[in-house]
Amino acid sequence: MPTYNELDNPKRLINELMRHLPDETFEVIFVDDSSDARSIEWLCALRETYPFVRVEHRTRERGLGSAVVRGFELSRGDVIAVMDADLQHPVGVLPEMMRALAAGYDVAIPSRFIPGGSDGGLSLPRKLVSFTARWMGRLALKRLRNVSDPTSGYFMVKRAVIDGVSLRPVGWKILIEILARGSYSRILEIPYAFEARALGESKMSLQEQWNYLRHLGRLILDSPEERRVYLFALVGTSGVLVNELLYDVLIHLQMALWTAGALSAFVAMGTNFVLNDRLTWVDARAGQAHRRFLKYVITSLFGIAQSTAVLSVLAYGERVNSLYANIAGIAVSMVWNFYINNFWTWKKKRRVVDIVISPVRTGTKLH
Ligand code: GDD
Ligand code: MN
């Protein structure tokens, strides 16, 4: 449990834990960055009273994500739960999470956003920020796509999920770090109601929202699978520039329009191929380069045929403005090019995303 100036909350939490987990063996690790002397004092008192309480005071480092990672390092159990110390995460869900892991799930995530769950504990502006963050995360990273509450600060994992994985969260959202880098195959979501804070205040800030964006960016860049589609789009844009520049030069050299157009398109196809081969699919190269190039050209030619077809159909009889029609055509062929190249041109078996997320969408009885 990460704590920062939580006053009396940890004590109440310990009472709740003992009430809900009377027969379990557990340790509670507080990784505390408090600046407030009373909060620190109360935590130390807890450690005196309860032998299962451990307190790690940090003075040099601060931050929720790194506090959780520190807790992982110190922990000794086979199962690790992360939760806030301010009672906004109801302790009653813990037994359900433990049953889920015992039933074979690797990760259990209490979710505010499946039937039966609610996020009543957030103010309206925070709900909006949270909504945007969640959707950005799910759009940006494939591994978050089917998780309804990826920005949750409440979850439980088997140790094997994070064992040997280097976790380097940028800000708060340690769960997206684990979902992006961890080794797991089954996740269970359990609905819960996020409670309002009774004591103290939230430490969420604008700085943390910025950190979240940096965090997403870093996770995309660190994964060949996640960054592929962005690199592809970038390479495509560079191809447009190459095409236009060369076209301009050739026209100035008095070349015929048709020849200049075809030549610059072909050269752009070549630079696109080289860049995609060296960047976008650098981990998926197999066999001889000229065979990949041939496949790339064939794919692109079909792509051009498609975009031209879409353009003609849409712009026929001026039903749609021809510029929009052309954009629609380009979009269709880009999707085509990406997928065919991904599964045909660069098809070397690579470590694909190995998860089957099978969220049980309601609180299904596991036993
Ligand atoms: N060690 C440490 N260092 N702990 C921190 C720090 C820090 O810099 N900042 C916050 N914490 C602790 C708080 O003491 C609390 O126990 C927990 O992290 C969550 O902080 P809050 O400030 O209460 O966050 P929140 O309620 O606005 O949002 C939380 O719940 C959401 C729903 O699960 C966070 O966990 C969000 O990430 C989460 O989406
Ligand atoms: Mn809170």
Automatic annotation (TrEMBL):
The chain crosses the membrane at residues 229-250, 256-275, 296-317, 323-340. Its main location: membrane. Keywords: Glycosyltransferase, Membrane, Transferase, Transmembrane, Transmembrane helix. InterPro entries: DPM1-like, Glyco_trans_2-like, GtrA_DPMS_TM, Nucleotide-diphossugar_trans. It is found in: Membrane. CDD domains: DPM1_like. It holds the Pfam family Glycos_transf_2. It comes from the Bacteria. One of its GO terms (cellular component) is membrane. Residues 1-162 form the Glycosyltransferase 2-like domain. One of its GO terms (molecular function) is dolichyl-phosphate beta-D-mannosyltransferase activity. It is a multi-pass membrane protein. GO terms for biological process: dolichol-linked oligosaccharide biosynthetic process; GPI anchor biosynthetic process; polysaccharide biosynthetic process; protein O-linked glycosylation via mannose. Residues 232-346 form the GtrA/DPMS transmembrane domain. PANTHER family: DOLICHOL-PHOSPHATE MANNOSYLTRANSFERASE SUBUNIT 1 (PTHR43398). Belongs to the glycosyltransferase 2 family. This is Glycosyl transferase family 2. It comes from Ferroacidibacillus organovorans. The lineage of its organism: Bacteria, Bacillati, Bacillota, Bacilli, Bacillales.
